Amino acid sequence: MIYMADTADLEELRKLYSFFPLEGVTTNPTILLHSGYKLSVAIEGIQELVGTGMVHVQMISGESDDMVREAKKYRSYFDFGDNFYAKIPVTANGYRAMRILKDAGINVTATAIFTQQQALVAMKAGADFVAPYVSRLDNISSHGIEVVGDIVENIALYGLNGKVLAASFKTVDQIYRVSMAGAHSATIGPELLHQLIKHPMTDIGVKQFEIDAEGLYDIEF
Ligand code: E4P
């Protein structure tokens, strides 16, 4: 499982990167808006923090050629190498842009996915990652985990190169269930990343070890 942080909050990212084995960051216009940073400051800050990790940035144009122009501009403006992924929504124009970007050697993450077919078509169009929105599906009485599981199965069935980037989480349980459904990666907001590694029994156990260690150690560490 590849873990990525779904945030542009640079302070939070710095904290998370200090201990969590993250392999990238994803953003969208809403996330960037909430970060409070101007676009260039946010992306530059993220780029610095991730090092050689992945940076997935969403294109906001509606037309294919504009999306392609946007992606190329990001690559040159921020001097991104292969760790840049252009997030492209799965619209008709988006699918066209994916094909052009792949031909130009630019990585693609297909986003705003709500069905297995949208993901399958995106991978046929060359998407490296496909991002189904789990919570948004669950919230409309659909089944986010099932969609993730179906896409995972399709990848194996057809021997596709794409990976599932499960997205849009509101609970730790959803993350547990996409992991068990075989999602290759998940992008998770800071609050849930912190909660994910928490267990009260761990805290109690560690506390007891500390108490038992008092006065026991006669070696300086
Ligand atoms: C990530 O790529 C998605 O844009 C994001 O996870 C959507 O999350 P939301 O449904 O919480 O807005």
From TrEMBL:
GO terms for biological process: carbohydrate metabolic process; ketone catabolic process. Signal peptide: none annotated. One of its GO terms (molecular function) is aldehyde-lyase activity. It is found in: Cytoplasm. The keyword Cytoplasm applies. GO terms for cellular component: cytoplasm. The keyword Cytoplasm applies. SUPFAM superfamilies: Aldolase. Keywords: Cytoplasm, Schiff base. It comes from the Bacteria. Gene3D superfamilies: Aldolase class I (3.20.20.70). Pfam families: TAL_FSA. InterPro entries: Aldolase_TIM, TAL/FSA, Transaldolase_AS, TSA/FSA_arc/bac. This is Transaldolase.
